[in-house]
Write a structure and sequence with these properties.
A hairpin with a 3-residue loop joins strand 4 and strand 5. Helix 1 packs across helix 2. The chain has a single domain, classed as START domain (Alpha-D-Glucose-1,6-Bisphosphate, Chain A, domain 4, 2-Layer Sandwich). The chain has three helices and seven strands; from the N terminus they run E-H-H-E-E-E-E-E-E-H. The radius of gyration is 16 Å and the shape is globular. Strands 1-7-6-5-4-3-2 form a seven-stranded antiparallel β-sheet, covered by helices on one side. By secondary structure, it is of the alpha+beta class.
Length: 159
């Protein structure tokens, strides 16, 4: 049996305006308790491992098993942090123990009238059987940004 070896590249930039001050949006990423409230798959998975080490050179790990589905593992390293301006990480993803991708992600925080303009840029390489997964990564990131928006928007707000 021959295993096909392929690689594909994907890149995207997603920008969102949130009705919250930069400090609040920043804290949603940098405070462990806050990040746990909005980041990840919520009730869609059984959480197995979580490591949160927000500092230059620090690592984050999130692993869980989707109900009736695969085990997903995320491992990130913080490579650049400028307080309330940007976060840069490199990260790897595995599905059922198979290395699927390596990415660099840039998170930018800009104050605007009425809140924060947040930009998530990503460049990734996808390996072998996951070579066509770039569109799914963008879709998943859109879901995370929607979850962040729900977290940042007060319940009594009309937004």
């Amino acid at each position: 049996m021959t295993t096909e070896r392929r690689i594909a590249r994907a890149e995207f930039l997603l920008t969102r305006d949130y009705p919250a001050a930069v400090e609040r949006v920043w804290d949603a990423f940098t405070d462990e308790e806050q990040k746990l409230r909005w980041w990840g798959a919520g009730d869609a998975m059984e959480h197995r491992e979580w490591v949160f080490d927000f500092r230059l050179g620090g690592r984050d790990v999130a692993e869980g098993k989707f109900h009736n589905g695969p085990v997903s593992r995320y491992e990130a390293t913080y490579t650049d942090i400028v307080d309330q301006v940007r976060i840069v990480t490199t990260y790897d993803m595995w599905i059922d123990g198979i290395h699927m991708s390596t990415s660099i992600a840039t998170l930018e925080f800009e104050p605007i009238e009425g809140g924060t303009r947040f930009a998530h840029g990503e460049q990734g390489v996808f390996f072998d059987r996951f070579w066509a997964d770039g569109a799914n990564r963008e879709k998943g990131t859109r879901g995370l940004l929607a979850a962040l928006g729900r977290y940042l928007t007060p319940r009594d707000s009309p937004a």
